[in-house]
Amino acid sequence: RPVADEGGRNDVMPRMKVDVAEKNGAYTVTAELPGVKKEDIQVTIDGSGVTLSAEVKREKEVTQDERVLHAERTFGKVSRSFTLPQEVDEAKAEAKFRDGVLELTLPKKAAAARKQVTIQ
Fold first, then answer.
1. Which of 8, 53, 83, 90 could form a disulfide with 79 if both were Cys (CB 3.0 to 4.6 A apart)?
2. Strands 94-98 and 76-83
């Protein structure tokens, strides 16, 4: 989604690159979030749905007497949603963020045991 800055330019946040793997009864999700601070990342889990959102904030505002000649660093919000094949046990989910890479470990929820009902 384009984000317009004060100069009226539209900056498009690069698409978040995400890898999803499955290992030892858990999903591992790796997302590249360069330039994002840990506190600006949100991870939401809803059953088998996962939403990652992040905000890249502009470090400094342009002053009155400053003119930007060239700017490639984009800022704004970026988010990705995806559905995993199985529900996630959100109570055991873990997230680590290091060097611009977010790593989630999302254990699968154990399937509820079916109970046979005895007919009286």
1. 53
2. unpaired
Determine the 3-state secondary structure of 65 from DSSP.
coil
Residue among 56, 36, 12 at smallest CA distance from 98 = 36
Q: Would residue 100 be called left, alpha or beta, if left means φ above 0 and alpha means ψ between -120 and 50 degrees?
A: left
- The terminus-to-terminus CA distance of the chain in angstroms comes to 60
Helix (H) or strand (E) holding 28: strand 26-32
Backbone angle region of 40, left / alpha / beta, with phi > 0 → left and psi within -120 to 50 → alpha? alpha
78: number of Cβ within 10 Å: 21
Residue with tokens 């660093």: 73
Q: Which residues contact 1 (CB under 8 A, 6 or more apart)?
A: 12, 13, 76, 77
